[in-house]
């Protein structure tokens, strides 16, 4: 069994994990930065980078101790090399490089999105390629066809906000604080999802892309009207997100088995979001890249619907996707909640998958704020 040290530092979570290639999580240590960013209502890149510097090495030492290992027992060191807030990514990557150099171990540069995309395979040994993945986080909202390690075909993305961003902004508008997703979900449980009429942007449109900016503005107007209960607004908002995700996935499902070449807008995600998370995201560029990325892909319809990323922790979304999968006679996999939000186990696991294929990286590899999957 190979043992991989995984390091994550691309946003506001510093984490270190030791992962076995047999899917054992030997150790996982995570330090969030919620308190540091709270006064600003979102992640401040400079504060995040400094916090990573302070905690990352002690976290790695603690994880090794938890697993009863020393660095020499590790077979490779995997770290997020992008996309993300560049200061934080550099801290994690430089730490990984220093350890790799000192211990004479190979370095594996992991794309953070690949970490999310492969995380369900850490949780579920029976999950095979190809699968249809809804990747929903604070910085991304994408539908991907995952055909293998390094083989991703992006079928859809958001033309404005990511789903997690919409949750965070709704939380802010409702005065619930940061981070918003879990707080909106908790409040929504007490509300009536039908009480406040809210839009479902792009519902029924031909391409399976997402849009959440209009929904966020409608939430703002509903709050300003002063005529609705906050719990009803939260419930209505969450239901609107669920309806959009389900509708867009239905569309993607009807396209994913065809040879249809999707239109993938470039440079639409990951713009700076003042007062919110500012995770730069990837862009696949153009249709030509899409086809290249898809070269050698497994043909046929994916048999499993998979959800990953921080928003995948939402119970209403998980339940709706599970019934969608059942309607399409597909399996459904959602990682446990701790594996949905940012963590180092998914980076260690993506490292293990790459290591098994002999994919390692040179020590002069640069950190990448943007990095197409
Ligand atoms: O994957 P993640 O930890 O970080 C990024 O890569 O962006 O995702 C964080 C996002 C945040 O926007 C947060 O509000 C959202 O995931 N989130 C949730 C829930 N838990 C986290 N959104 C809705 N419901 C939740 N329970
Ligand atoms: Zn993430």
UniProtKB/TrEMBL annotation:
Required co-factors: Fe(2+)
Gene3D superfamilies: 3.30.420.40
GO cellular component: cytoplasm
Residue intervals of the Gcp-like domain: 24-258, 300-349
Molecular function, one GO term: iron ion binding
Residues noted as binding Fe cation in the record, renumbered to the chain: 112, 116, 342
EC numbers: 2.3.1.234
Pfam families, A to Z: TsaD
Cofactor binding comment, as recorded: Binds 1 Fe(2+) ion per subunit.
Signal peptide limits: none
KW Iron (keyword) present: yes
Localization, UniProt: Cytoplasm
Catalytic activity: L-threonylcarbamoyladenylate + adenosine(37) in tRNA = N(6)-L-threonylcarbamoyladenosine(37) in tRNA + AMP + H(+)
InterPro entries (alphabetical): ATPase_NBD, Gcp-like_dom, KAE1/TsaD, TsaD
Region entry Disordered, spans: 256-284
Residues engaged in binding substrate: 135-139, 168, 181, 185, 314
GO aspect biological process, one term: tRNA threonylcarbamoyladenosine modification
SUPFAM superfamilies membership: Actin-like ATPase domain (SSF53067)
HAMAP family registered for this protein in UniProt: TsaD
Described function: Required for the formation of a threonylcarbamoyl group on adenosine at position 37 (t(6)A37) in tRNAs that read codons beginning with adenine. Is involved in the transfer of the threonylcarbamoyl moiety of threonylcarbamoyl-AMP (TC-AMP) to the N6 group of A37, together with TsaE and TsaB. TsaD likely plays a direct catalytic role in this reaction.
Family assignment from sequence similarity: Belongs to the KAE1 / TsaD family.
Protein name per the record: tRNA N6-adenosine threonylcarbamoyltransferase
